[in-house]
Amino acid sequence: MKFGKQFTAQMVPEWREAYMDYDFLKSLLKQIDSFNRTHARNHPSTHSGQLRRTLTLYRAFSGLTLRHSHSHGHAHSHVHSHAQNSNPTSPASPQDVEEQAILVNTVNRDGTRKYKTTFLMADEEGGEYELVYFRSLDREFNKVDKFYKSKVEEVVKEATLLNKQMDALIAFRIKVENPHGVWDFSGDRSEEITRLATDIAVSTAALSSSTPSGVRASRRVHIAMDSIEEGEGGSSHNGPLHSESLSKDGEKNKENNNNKGKVEEEEKDKAMATKMKANRPPPLELLDHVKMNTTLETPRSTIKGLLNFPKNSELQFNKENLNRIENQLKKAFVVFYHKLRLLKSYSFLNTLAFSKIMKKYDKITSRNAGKSYMKMVDSSYLGSSDEVSKLMERVEAAFIKHFCNANRTKGMNILRPKAKKERHRTTFSVGFFAGCTIALVVALIFITRARHILDKEGGTQYMETMFPLYSLFGFVVLHLLMYAANIYFWRRYQVNYSFIFGFKQGTELSYRDVLLPSFAVAALALACVLSNLDMEMDPETKPYQAVTELLPLVLLLLVIAVFLCPFNILYRSSRFFCMRTLYHCICAPLFMVIFPDFFLADQLTSQVQALRSLEFYICYYGWGDYKHRRNTCRTNTVFNTFSFIIAVIPYWSRLLQCLRRLYEEKDAMQGYNGVKYFLTIVAVCLRTAYSLNKGISWKIVAAVFSAVAAIISTYWDIAIDWGLLQRHSKNRWLRDKLLVGHNSVYYAAMVLNVLLRFAWLQTVLDFQFSFLHTQGLITIVASLEIIRRGIWNFFRLENEHLNNVGKYRAFKSVPLPFNYDEDDDKDD
Predict the structure, then answer these.
(1) Which of 159, 292, 451, 629 is the most exposed place for a label (fewest CB within 10 A)?
(2) What Å distances lie between residue 514 and 8, 420, 523, 623, 766, CA to CA?
(3) How many H helices and E strands in the chain?
(4) Alpha-carbon distance 734 to 754, whole Å?
(5) Backbone angles phi and psi of 732, in degrees to 5
(6) Cβ–Cβ < 8 Å for 417, 341
(7) Which of 451, 90, 166, 448 is closest to 329 using CA atoms?
(8) Distance between terminal CA atoms of the chain?
């Protein structure tokens, strides 16, 4: 695989625009190469060399002492005298300046350090192409360097915040595990602290002496960080992110010092440690300035908030709170470490990309500019800063020590989860069950056609009873197939769906993983259908009609049992994630609404007919109709009443979620979205009433409300959820950023969404087909809605992903357990 594809594949999707535009720079090099080839054909090589020598004669005289001068600094300042307010990145090389292709300067503008490359051979033929190339190269590098520096500053601030959280945790742990204990810092304990402070100070001195002055300035923010210690429950300035690795660095640096310097440094550092120990406040005093963060995330806290219960933010020292705090900080450390890993990857990939593009430039132009440019890259913040690597080491040490009981293997498995590997047996199983499904479908078609089963006596009764039971599995399988297709296209167009949904790394399902249960359930359901028909036609098994009716129920119970299975088999993490999200949807608005919650609720709005099939299961088997194969549910008042309730549950859940978000976010759009779902609830109830009580008045009212709800929902799908229909977009009536290369795909999706949205017209206009049973028509209409939802899913996540890209949002915010009083003062 070429580097360009590897570079694109390893990018952080949300930071794509902050990476070096390798393809653009490569296209500029192609233009340079094309010009050189054309020029070489039109001019002999000897003439080209003569022209270069002639141009060299007309260049400004570089001086007699430059070539052999030992005062490089003087020569270099002479060369750069034309650059106002600029500094050279590296001393001039011994070679003649007239042989150099580029000169790289650092320019300070508005307090920002930028790099500017001067191309010294612009007077040659084709030099304007190379001039454009270096201007673009500088623009890309300054963009990358600025972005990286801003992100490093963010993680440094976050590290300081985590330090304070860890200080409070250690103090809290002392208070819980040893509430009446006395912590003695005398004797051996004092020597241990002194030795630790000595190691840290020596490490800091060695690091400072070995750091170039240009780089040292960029590390000033870490002077305090590198000189702190971690005592037993240190103060708010003694963070556990720094001490473990620093002690190791100190030991290595001390070995390199001579004996005399070592004694002197130890004496100074002992005095410093004694001073630090004397000035350090007692660790438990931290708890006097700390409160618990209380957020309305659980049903209990939400109910208390609505009832205006006073917030109990005071610390309660017990094991339950300690475990909860540790779990919160554990998640925060995992997310923070993941952020550091992405930053390190960002730095490495961009540095490698600049190296690759300069090698290509040197190869095409036969110059030696790459070495000079890469020296500048290596001395820049992007190439020289090691704050991220240091923080990674400290996070690893602190996490292993405080959250994994010093078990490094366990800690690193949590911090660096392994990527999920595709298994061949999954692919084989998918193919096997898919083949079985196709064979069973063909067999079912041939059997029903050859024996005219539906035309015989009892065929209509079979469609009224057994078909709704088996159609449930058809709805589930179709939705899973659409979800598998979504995953395939999300991956193809690099939509970071695992981040959007909040899946843990290594637990996200591939499209093959979704296809496996889809085809397995489909094969089992079709096998049950064929078995049921075979027992119906066999005279020996026909008397056991009641037993044959139980096959759909047995299959449903089997599917539910697998879904609820607590053992770590059959994608347990994904099943539990789905169960937890489903519970949040049912309990809306008691839980804080996140993306997976309202996304699943939207999926359920397209499975209304499946929910009605579940209701029919309860009625058919609960009332004993299966013993006589008769359907008395339609005449049952309770069943008809629950038909209204079952149909509106998904829309009601979405309405409550919108109200919850309106209350928390104060976003008017959530209120408008809630109105949309309210109108849909009214329309669904009216259509249900019309299906039970035929009448022209019901028909007109149901049609009017359904039309209004469908129009509003269609506009919301396309304009809000998909972000399309932007009048001033460069892509006509779409949006500026599109992941799919063909605009026709978006136009076709909009048309399909409109057509499938109005599939409900069948329930109002009562379309009838002689070759199709009513239950079959209802199933087709419900299937079309599921297909529409599958199309909606892709563009909904595409829009969400592009919103994350626009905001460079590649991480989830993790709530922290403690809140310092000084933070409250800042907020005020």
Answers:
(1) 451
(2) 26, 14, 15, 35, 36
(3) 32, 5
(4) 16
(5) -50, 120
(6) no
(7) 166
(8) 55
Distance from C-alpha of 788 to C-alpha of 482, rounded to nearest angstrom: 9
The values of phi and psi at residue 606, to 5°, are -95, 5
Those residues whose C-beta lies under 8 Å from the C-beta of residue 415, and which sit 6 or more positions away, are: 333, 334, 337, 395, 396, 399
Amino acid identity for residue 750 in this structure: M
The neighbouring-strand residues paired with 290 are 820
Which one, of 672, 643, 640, lies nearest residue 655 by Cα? 672
Say if residues 479 and 502 touch (Cβ distance below 8 Å): no
Q: CA distances (Å), 102 to each of 130, 367, 653, 677, in order?
A: 10, 10, 64, 63
The pair of structure tokens assigned to 145 is 């360097």
* For the chain, the helix, strand and coil percentages under 3-state DSSP, each to the nearest 5: 70, 5, 25
Length of the chain as a residue count? 828
Pairing between β-strand 112-119 and β-strand 290-292 as defined by DSSP bridges? unpaired
Contact between residue 651 and residue 657 where contact means Cβ atoms under 8 Å apart = no
Contact, 611 vs 582, CB < 8 A? no
Give the strand pairing for 818-820 and 112-119: unpaired
Question: Which residue in 676, 683, 684, 682 sits closest to 657, CA to CA?
Answer: 676
CB 327 within 8 A of CB 169: no
Over the chain (828 residues), the average pLDDT of each successive run of 10 is: 87 93 93 85 55 47 42 37 42 50 82 85 81 93 95 94 91 82 46 45 45 42 37 41 44 48 56 50 70 71 64 72 90 94 96 95 90 92 92 94 92 89 91 97 88 70 84 96 98 94 90 97 95 78 76 95 94 95 93 94 96 94 83 86 93 96 93 96 92 86 92 96 94 94 96 90 73 84 95 97 92 86 53
Question: What is the structure's pLDDT at 783?
Answer: 95
Contact assessment for residue 566 and residue 573, using Cβ atoms and an 8 Å cutoff: no
Residues 6 or more apart whose CB falls under 8 angstroms from that of 529 comprise 444, 470
Spatial CB neighbours of 44, under 8 Å, sequence gap ≥ 6: none
**102 by DSSP, 3-state: which?**
strand
Place of tokens 């299906």: 691
* The token pair that represents 48 in the structure block: 């080209």
Give 5-23 as a DSSP string.
HHHHHTS-GGGGGGS--HH
Question: Do 157 and 83 touch, CB atoms closer than 8 A?
Answer: no
Residue 235 phi/psi, 5-degree rounding, is -80, -175
The Cα 511–Cα 522 span in angstroms is: 16
pTM (2 d.p.): 0.80
Alpha-carbon span 493 to 486, nearest angstrom? 11
Transcribe 423-484 into DSSP letters.
PHHHHHHHHHHHHHHHHHHHHHHHHHHHTTTTTSTTHHHHHHHHHHHHHHHHHHHHHHHHHH
CB 82 within 8 A of CB 101: no
Q: Taking a C-beta distance cutoff of 8 angstroms, is the pair 461, 550 a contact? A: no
* Nearest alpha carbon to residue 468 among 540, 552, 355: 552
Element (H, E) at 103: strand 102-109
Backbone angles phi, psi at 239, to 5 degrees: -90, 140
Cis peptide before 589 (omega within 30 of 0): yes
**Contacts with 103 (C-beta within 8 Å, 6 or more apart), sequence order:** 79, 80, 88, 117, 118, 120, 372
Please give the distance of CA 233 from its chain centroid, rounded to a whole number. 35
H-run or E-run covering 292? strand 290-292
User: Is residue 705 within 8 Å of 686, Cβ to Cβ?
Assistant: yes
For residues 173 and 400, give the distance between their C-alpha atoms in angstroms, rounded to a whole number.
16
